[in-house]
Amino acid sequence: MKYGKIIEGRFLSRPNRFIAYVNIGGRTEKVHVKNTGRCKELLVEEGTVYLEKSEKPGRTTNYDLIAVRKGERLINMDSNAPNKAVGEWLWKKELFPSLKSVRAEKTYKNSRFDFYVETQEDKVFLEVKGVTLERENGAYFPDAPSERAVKHVEELIEAAGEGYKAYILFIIQMKGIDFFCT
Questions:
Q1: Report field, pTM of the whole predicted structure over 0.85
Q2: Edge to edge, what strands does the sheet with 138-140 contain?
Q3: Together in a domain, 21 and 106
Q4: Which of residues 76, 91, 106 is at a domain's end?
Q5: Which domain holds residue 68?
């Protein structure tokens, strides 16, 4: 997974989950936030943020906020990045050498899981969770309570009871982490 042209800015404010205002070279720019989580420990006033220029015509914003600097650590906060990376990785057949097919966004009962995989041996549901919360060199999940995440776990357990394999992949969106906690 690769990004296009990345520029640096300074975070100013976040009026809602989808929009932030960023100082780019002395001008205030409205940008799209690619993470609807709280991110209060990441999006701090005057903090360094990284933006990708959007090439999509007709958008109301010209940039996507994709990463932040927290101290010396660069943290990717693009909610789409974990799924894109896992999707690419699955096709390399490192996790499932006998991979036959991969389907994104597969519905099972009342949930839509990130991936449904078929191998020669198994049928597998995969749920991908991005991890952006860091404290004292540890990565933590979740960064906020989530009824949806609980529902996903419960339905993955049900799927496993029906003979499916069920995985939750936690993708830590930063380097230099010593431990992970849920």
A1: yes
A2: 133-135, 138-140, 179-181
A3: no
A4: 76
A5: 6-76
State the sign of the Cα–Cα–Cα–Cα dihedral 86, 87, 88, 89.
positive
Q: How far, in Å, are 85, 127, 157, 159 from residue 166 at the CA level?
A: 19, 8, 7, 7
Total residues found in the chain within this entry: 182
Least confident piece of the model among 10-19, 130-139, 143-152: 143-152
The sheet that has 123-131: what strands, in order across it? 99-108, 111-119, 123-131, 165-172
CA distances from 110 to 59, 68, 117 (A): 32, 34, 18
Residues 157 and 171 in one domain: yes
Confidence of residue 55 (pLDDT cuts 50, 70, 90): confident
Q: Cis before residue 142, ω within 30 degrees of 0?
A: yes
Confidence of residue 146 (pLDDT cuts 50, 70, 90): confident
- Could you tell me which of 169, 147, 11, 167 has the C-alpha nearest to residue 75? 11
Confidence (pLDDT) at 30: 98
Question: What is the structure's pLDDT at 81?
Answer: 97
pLDDT value of position 182: 85
Total number of domains constituting the chain: 2
